[in-house]
Amino acid sequence: MRKLAGVIESQQFDQQTLNEIFRAAAEMETLHSSDLLRGKTMASLFYEPSTRTRMSFEAAMCRLGGQVISTENARQFSSKAKGESLEDSIRVISAYCDVIVLRYHKEGGASRAQQFSKVPVINAGDGRGQHPTQALLDLYTIIKAFGKISGLTIAMVGDLANGRTVRSLSYLLAKHYSDNKIVFVSPAQTRMGSDVKQYLTSCKIAWEETDDLKTVAPCSDVIYQTRVQRERFQDGDSAIYEQVIKDSERFNINSETLDSMKKNAIIMHPLPRVTEISYTVDSDPRARYFEQAENGLYVRMALLKMILAGY
Questions:
Q1: Which of 52, 91, 144, 232 is catalytic?
Q2: Are residues 281 and 245 in the same domain?
């Protein structure tokens, strides 16, 4: 029996492991309670605010019979406020649990933590870096909608420079699903990073960049909308932030966007949303963002099982 050693970045997965994760997630959809992880403890360590990621991980652990220890806003209400390093915190906390779910405010936090942890670490988001479990649930949502991830045009829209979810999803698509096309739609100030684009090119996945959602929407199978990441703009960047907000208004999804889209296309969003998707869109069957969030529970149950019980 194999076990996952942890989840640090999207690129770590091979195709066989991805298939195992999605198979296990499908099983978890019908599993409301289990004693599989009885006696196991998950530490929920979040240095940045979170609703869906944190609660879905904690619910996942509880459904599998395990228990959760946590601290509310570790950046303010843990020893971090006293100046303790991440490395020292991890050394101590890993002695109290069987797995650590870590959200850190700086890129590379999960990788640093894994070096000093006695137990597996799951990256629940690290600054502008990655959010690999979100990418996994995004892929799972696409598979459920289309039955495959092949021959699709996937538009990623919004603040792509600061959105770790679209970065992680791009890496996974490039490595394992290169027979798709990615279109980056954003203001000039928040274009996708060159590291991701170079990786896409090296994997021979087709991609392009534009600031015109109206042209892209009619030919897209997936529109992956994101919000402007206000927390990623420094205090001195307020003017840039306001300009990005203004420039992003033309990317908002509304009834006009729906009229131009394919009938079998889907709209995704990692949430929370602000104004970038109109509430009138929610009742359209192509709106999959709440289903997407629910899928996070099943994927994270699958990951905890594969890390702590094996597969």
A1: 52
A2: yes
Per the domain annotation, does 4 fall within a domain? no
Q: Is the pLDDT of residue 231 over 70?
A: no
CATH number reported for the structural domain that contains residue 29 in this entry: 3.40.50.1370
Single pTM value for the model: 0.92
Q: Quick one: 111 and 144 in the same domain?
A: no
**Which residues constitute the domain of residue 191?**
132-292
Structure tokens at 289: 């963002």
Given this model, what pLDDT does residue 54 score? Answer: 95
In terms of domains, do 269 and 280 share one?
yes
* Catalytic residue (choose from 80, 131, 286, 288): 131
Please state the rounded mean pLDDT for residues 232-240: 65
3-state secondary structure of 164: helix
Q: Would residue 82 show up in a list of annotated catalytic residues for this protein?
A: yes
| The pLDDT of residue 135 is above 70 | yes
Does residue 122 contact residue 7 with C-beta atoms inside 8 Å? yes
Annotated catalytic residue, options 2, 32, 82, 204: 82
Cβ(181)–Cβ(225) below 8 Å: no
In degrees and rounded to multiples of 5, residue 232 shows phi and psi of -90, -5
